[in-house]
Write a structure and sequence with these properties.
The protein is an alpha/beta fold. It has a single domain, classed as Rossmann fold. The chain contains seven helices and 15 strands. It has helices at 10-21, 70-87, 121-135, 173-184, 201-212, 233-236, 247-255, and strands spanning 2-6, 25-30, 40-43, 58-61, 92-98, 109-110, 139-143, 145-147, 162-163, 167-168, 170-172, 190-193, 199-200, 218-219, 229-230. It has a seven-stranded parallel beta sheet, sandwiched between helices. The protein is globular.
Length: 256
Amino acid sequence: MSSLVVGCGYVGTALARARAAAGEDVIAVSRSGVALDGVESLERDVTDPDLELPDADRVYYLVGAGSRDVDAYRAAYVQGLEHTVAACPDADLVYASSTGVYDVEDGSWVDEETPIEPASERGRVLLDAEDVARAAGGTVVRFSGLYGPDRLVGDRYLDGARVPAGYLNLLHRDDAASALVAAAEADQDLYVAVDDEPVDRHDLSRWLAEFTGREPGTLVDAVERSNKRCSNERLRGTGWAPAYPTYREGYAAILG
């Protein structure tokens, strides 16, 4: 098996390392190159319409926009993906999307069958990119809030900081990498990748305070951000299971 990991950021780097450790021939594609043991590095700009990439059995597309500007979103998620598909037309494609496509504020559950009507232009761009991936016969994986070594979600909710109400959906970086592989080898074209337990922001602040010995944040009732609970039932149905089922296990491993 040969794989291209296009976009070697936080998850892409972990994925490239894991696939190389599993014995695959892995090429990491990025603008500036990466240095990973057992992984070939290739410098490419996916926004180049003349993009050239080597043949591979599978392409994982994890390019980030680097900005919340709509044009940057479209260049990275739609145009870059189109160029990658054109450069590797015969490869199996796995596209990393986001649970941010769900505009839900009432704390309800969402899954792959939940209807989506994006309220923002960025949300529409994300769905356009998913359409590109599916039209190419690819698989889409919608990720929730990613955390792991050197990246915690919610640590700002301590020491008196304002903590809004509502749910967070989290996933450890290493579980994100394994989810991409599981989805690639399964039979559906869309999966939601989250851990087993959405966490209320207030509960996360209290838990972090107790675990670290710091003060919790100031809990308020207002919901200022997206508020939804994402289900991983379909992805678990492939046989995949997170090594860190909830934030408790994942955060404890990081914080010691």
